[in-house]
Amino acid sequence: MGDIEAPSSGGAPSSLSVLMTVLPSKEFCTSKKGILLIGEVAVSFLAFVCFAASLASAFVTVPLIEFLGALFILFAYSTKFNERFKGFLWPLMDFLRCVTASIIYFIVSIIAVFNYRDGSSKAAGIFGFIATIFFALDFYKVFTELAEFLKHGGESREETTQQDKYSESDDDSD
């Protein structure tokens, strides 16, 4: 009953193959962005659980929304979903998500730590402060990418490189 079954070769996909399609790629998980997003997801979930069990449960929506947002961005970046929809200005959306999350987490964590005396509220506040650090590091990383993105007029580096190659080949034909 407790044994792990081997993946089936039949019609239904095995749980391992389903799990591998949901998890981000190994290359993305080892990148700085991947580590920050996995940290945001994990700490936001822990803060959500602590807020749900505390007297400060009125603030439970903050970690829940940030957990779902970080989970979506983790999924989008790891599956390269963001590259299919270039009209959304992903760097700007990610920057705004990180800035607002770090500010809101900081405020809610201060309230949870200083206004409530139960242990789970204090733990939720501590996890909120840790989440503030993760989101602040992420918005600094995104800020540098966004500055590069806006410096090139909203074009990706590959598009700029291709345009430079074309302009050089035009100059050679004269």
Please describe what this structure looks like:
With 174 residues, this protein is mainly α. It has one domain. It has eight helices and no strands. The longest helix has 33 residues, at 119-151.
Strand count, sense and closure of the main sheet? Answer: none
Distance between the termini: 77 Å
Instruction: Tally the beta strands.
Output: 0
How many helices? The count is 8
Shape: elongated
For this entry, what is the oligomeric state of its chains? single chain
Helical residue percent band: over 70%
Region (Disordered): 154-174
Protein name: MARVEL domain-containing protein
Pfam families: MARVEL (PF01284)
Biased composition (Basic and acidic residues): 154-168
Describe this protein with a few key phrases.
single chain; 174 residues; mainly alpha; 8 helices; elongated
SSE topology sketch:
Layout: H1 15-22, H2 26-29, H3 32-52, H4 61-78, H5 81-84, H6 90-115, H7 119-151, H8 157-172
Task: Give a concise summary.
By secondary structure, the protein is mostly helical. Helix content is 75%, strand content 0%.
